[in-house]
Please model this.
Amino acid sequence: MARRSTGKINLKSLLLILPQIILFLIIIKSILNSVILSLNVSDNNSIFNNYKKLFEREDFISSLSFTLKYTFLSSLLAVIIALIIVEFLSDRESKIGDFIMNIPVMIPHFVVCVFLTILFSKTGLLSRILSYTNINLNLVDKILYNQNALGIILSFLWKEIPFIIIFSIVIYRKINTNLCEASRNLGASRLHTFLKIKLPLIFPTVYIAFMIIFAYAFSNYEVPLLLGPNIPKSLSELSYLEYSKPDLINRNYAMAINTIILLIVFILVLIYLIFIRRSSRRNDL
Amino acid sequence: MIYKENVLKKMLNIVFKGILYFTIIGPIVLLCIYIFVERWSYPDIMPQVFSFRSIDSVIRQQGFLKLILSSTLISVLVSIISLIIALMNSWFIFYKCKDSRVKNAVHLMAIFPFMMSATVFSLGINVDFLKINLDKTLTAVIVSHLVFSLPYSHKIIYDAFKAIGEKYYEASKSLGASDINTFLRVILPLTSPVITNALNMAFVISFSQYFTTLVMGGGNVKTLSTVIVPFLQSGERNISAIYSLVFILISGVIFLINKMIVNVVFKNKRVSYF
Model:
């Protein structure tokens, strides 16, 4: 009954979402372009020839593993550290604290790169301080422009930890007041309460935040360009390099790399959707 | 015993917060000092000579003011457009559409770019823009910025509409108000606390787009971010530090202006629903 009356949508009100639909179609077209061009091969090769060639290239494989490594590490660390901070700081609301937490969200990544170069480069503040203390750890050489991607991870962490905190703190405070007091009253330890009650409740929100920062870090161009090593390059850098080459066949490689970037992000989304479906089924029962 | 434990806990909390806030504010303070540095020979911790020289040289650069103005204007425009689209989306989702599947579809469409990578989008769509001669134009840059700033404003406005609920809309409609009046006099004032957030967020996202501007603008459209990154790349730390500070200052000024405008427009209509 209720359903029948809901079916029709006023044509005039569809105009409201027209800009949104156009933007969405543009995005879809960009994806389609990437996929179609990546399958564009000369006559008698299989349509996955571009991908096959890519996976035979050593620089692509090292780029892929390098990019995956720093993205996973930075996103996972950001989530864990953010959860720890939220657990200890969500007790009291403070306006100043919330304001300070908002600052990194408003500062772009390349400005964070400026911070890191001032602090950690070879003539940076850290190396000056270390030169006074006679500690020679070779620490400074290992942060920026290094294959361990420490600088890249640090720059992502500085921005993404506050992002996750802001993203999840409202829900966290809600959980904190209602359920956790009950749990603590009944004698559960803080860790136990955290693992059994808070974590399952906050997990969907945190996973969404994780997906957003993963997708962002995975396809970020400027941070690995500014703080990463020359070799291996990040996937975005490699893709843009291929794209800028004059030969059109290289553009197809760029599109193949882009399609792989998209696929990996979408796998994450798929995991989320499966998880949501399963947990909602559990709730139904 | 309990008292002692509490004091210890408080101390730990303060230390913990102190470290946390220091890691956030420290670098910005450092940046502010760094732009005045003229000479800083290596092992010294304190710079030897401070001056305004490098700031002067950046400000005197040709086209500096034009660069700042144009890139700020682009981002302000993007933030306003994305606010309008976000309001239209949420208006449709909450008041004009009763089918929950359509609602979900629109919402998913709006937040989809969260998962979209800037590289994939810019390189992918540039192929089409080249064909219709839209590459290297302001329009292309604005469209690409919109794509990435809209999900943020949509999320903020959507949450606000969700908190407002349908009761105000229905009350207003049943009292005979038109849609436009309901929007301007009832719903918009109710969303005013988050409108500043939505504008700010969209502004920052647009202002800090580097790769999309680089590809879609193709060198014709310059923004602050496409200027800063090459300086950093070539190791001119001092100049990129100054530009970064200019970047932060402009963002701050825009945030203040947004807040002031919202305060003036929605004077005496303070609401809180969270």
